[in-house]
Structures are given as structure tokens and as C-alpha cells.
Amino acid sequence: MKKTILKILILTLILISCRQNNKSKTQARELTQIEITDKFRLEFLTQILSDSSKSRLLFNKRELISNLPAMVPPQLPIDPKNRSRTISHFEFISDTLKINDIDFVREQFKENKDFNISRLEKNGFKVIDVEKYREREIQWDSIDKIAEKYYEENQMINFYSFLHITKPIFNKELNLAYVRFRAGSGGMTRIYEKRNGIWKMKYEFDEWVE
Fold first, then answer.
1. From CA 174, how far away is CA 176, in angstroms rounded?
2. pTM, to two decimals
3. What secondary structure letter does DSSP report for 88?
4. Per-residue pLDDT of the chain (210 residues; tens, 9 = 90+)
């Protein structure tokens, strides 16, 4: 009798283990099946930067865009499971986009490392190579002066800084996007929604000023 019970327990554990492995494999397949290409990222950024509505980010297509976003960390909510800490950025984005899959968000951060914002120049935008300047240990005030000189040479009055923009994170349906911005001394986070093939701002939050 004891041997029979032991065999049943062993078989049950094996079945549970197999189900967990199959679930992990299924989730892994789902991640690889949802392909977010650099072309898709570029099309998204081009659309939102070309927006001429009240939620526009640029007032002139010749405004400078940084290829290295520099901004304060987002204000993250308190972790309901541990009141002494905030949730992670991955958790926050997953919850905001209603993905419920932190690994899907984390994987996009990895893939985004190879996406170069400077590719926006192919679509007529002006990108300042902040990444190169920072690698050469050029200070931010000197980079600001480079931007000011550019605007002066191009007779762009009342322009003095450049736009920082993070690489976008999408939901699994690829119709919602999470992206953060900084212009001058302040910034915000936005959620964009794709409707009828066009990306529009859905809502804005986490506004901040240094």
C-alpha cells in the first residue's frame, strides 16, 4: 500500500514538473513569436515626433533630438506586497500596459539596446550625438552650448535645448506604447495608442521639473 502511494506521489510530481516546463516553453514561444522590429520602432517614433496636434513634442522638425536619453527615474508606486519599497520599473510598465508579463518588458529593454535613435535622421529629423560627447567626457553645459550654436547658425529663435526620448516599450498587441520624454528641465511619461494605423497620445502622467 505504501509503495502504491509513493508511486502515485512520484507520478504526480513528474506531471506537475512537465506542466510547468510546458508552460515555460509556451511563454518562451510567445515572446519569440511577437516580433518588434527596428523598423516598427522607427515608424512609431517618426509618427509621434511628426504630430502637429496640441500634444506635439516638436515645433520644428529641425529641433535637436538626443540619441542618449537623460532624465530622472520615474516615480514608481509602492509595492502592495511590501510597503517599504516601490515596485520595479519592469513591473510598473507591465502593469501600465496591462501586459502582466514582466519578462516581455525586460526582453524589450534588452532588444532596445541595439536600436539607434540616430536612425531618425533618415526620416528628416536632426539628432545630436550626445552619446559620443558623453563618451568623450564632454560636460552637459558644453553640450548645451553646442546645441545653442546649432540653433543660432540655423536662425532658430527661442530654441536652445534638445529633446530626450526613451526607446519605446510596447504591449503584446503592439497597439500601446510606453515612452518617456525630457525637454529642457522637465519631462513626463506618455502612453500612446494605435488606432486605424495611427499612433495618438492616450494619456500623460508623471510630469516632473528639475
1. 6
2. 0.82
3. P
4. 555 554 555 555 555 554 555 444 444 445 447 899 999 999 999 999 999 999 999 999 999 999 999 988 898 998 888 888 899 999 999 999 999 999 999 999 999 999 999 999 999 999 999 999 999 999 999 999 999 999 999 999 999 899 999 999 999 999 999 999 999 888 999 999 999 999 999 999 999 887
C-alpha to C-alpha distances, 101 to 16, 106, 108, 117, 170, nearest whole angstrom: 22, 9, 12, 26, 12
Nearest alpha-carbon partner for 189 in 159, 172, 164 = 164
CA distance 5 to 30: 37
Residue 151 amino acid letter: Y
Q: How far is CA 120 from CA 39, 153, 165, 177, in A?
A: 11, 21, 12, 18
Tell me the angle at which helices 89-96 and 102-112 cross, rounded to the nearest 10 degrees.
110
Asked if 202 contacts 193 with a C-beta cutoff of 8 angstroms, the reply is yes
Q: How many CB atoms lie within 10 A of CB 79?
A: 13
Q: Would you say 145 and 162 are in contact if contact means Cβ atoms under 8 Å apart?
A: no
Cα separation of 40 and 137, whole Å?
32
- The set of residues, in sequence order, having a beta carbon less than 8 Å from that of 129 and lying 6+ positions away, is 67, 118
